[in-house]
Amino acid sequence: MDTAQTGLFGISHARVTAYAAVLLLCGVVGWQAIAQPSAVVQNETTPSTENVQIAEDYLASLASTTQTAGYGNITPLGASIFAQALIAYDKALETSSSTDVGLAAVQAYGTSVRPSVDYKSYAAGDILTTADTSKDRVLAYRADLRTALEPLLENKEYELDIYAQYVDTKDAKYLAGLHSAAQNYRIAVSKTEKVVAPVDASVYHASILSSLSKFASTLEALADNANDPFASAALLRTFLDAQDGVIASFNSIGKYATSKIL
């Protein structure tokens, strides 16, 4: 076997760099389309240990020769996404011998992948509640909730703008800024956990806690993977989903309060 042509593990250099180009292109498209994220979320196929290892090993080799092209600093998440792209490509070639079909499959995967993040999910049963659901109690609850969420006021700048500044400058202070913003979300979660809600608001209160927890974890993941082009492009979509979750949870609690007060 001619390793000069096929590269490590029998994977051609042309094939691998094509994956990289498509995934990075998808990342650029995703960045430009932030105002209108896709509503379609496709389930990911869990990569085999062998595929993950191949991706990690090959990317390690690739990074040593292509640092200046931006393919270095591959994280475990990025390697997993890369392995998923290999799976998408190979499955497409099972029905067609055209590399264009394979690359289209990789692009479809790249535009739909949303890495999951670890966060605490809350249910109505986790919430401290009172049986009093009167107008006065709801007004007091709203005031308590506003106080608990005050740490979020420390976040003066939109998190995605902070991330964009890191992309432009590579200044680590912006990553520290993302971590700081995430910490403020976690402080708000901790305070909101202690708020006693009217029992009929418990589901909305749980949604707020879950969405804030997910958003904090997403910010941390985005900061931790900022130098990995594969992971960061995909995490931008996770960010948008998490952001939508926060907005939806706040809209729901607002409608609840309005219905009780008016």
Briefly, what is this?
The chain has 10 helices and 2 strands. It has 262 residues and is mainly alpha-helical. A two-stranded parallel sheet has the order 1-2.
Please characterize this protein's 3D structure.
The chain is mostly helical and 262 residues long. Helix content is 68%, strand content 2%. The chain has 10 helices and 2 strands. It has helices at residues 3-6, 13-32, 49-66, 76-93, 99-112, 135-148, 159-169, 172-193, 202-224, 229-261; strands at residues 129-130, 197-198. Strands 1-2 form a two-stranded parallel sheet. The model is unreliable at 1-71 (pLDDT under 50).
- How many separate helices? 10
Q: Distance between the terminal alpha carbons, to the nearest Å?
A: 77 Å
Q: What does the overall shape look like? A: elongated
Order of helices and strands: HHHHHEHHHEHH
Strand order of the largest sheet: 1-2
Strand content: under 5%
Q: Give the biggest sheet.
A: 2 strands, parallel
- SS-derived structural category: mainly alpha
- Compute the number of strand runs: 2
The mean pLDDT is 74
Helical content (DSSP H or I, runs of 4+): 55-70%
State Rg: 22 Å
- Low-confidence spans: pLDDT under 50, at least 5 residues? 1-71
Describe the protein's topology.
Elements: H1 3-6, H2 13-32, H3 49-66, H4 76-93, H5 99-112, E1 129-130, H6 135-148, H7 159-169, H8 172-193, E2 197-198, H9 202-224, H10 229-261
Parallel strand pairs: 1-2
Helix pairs in contact: 2-5, 2-10, 3-4, 4-5, 4-10, 7-8, 8-9, 9-10
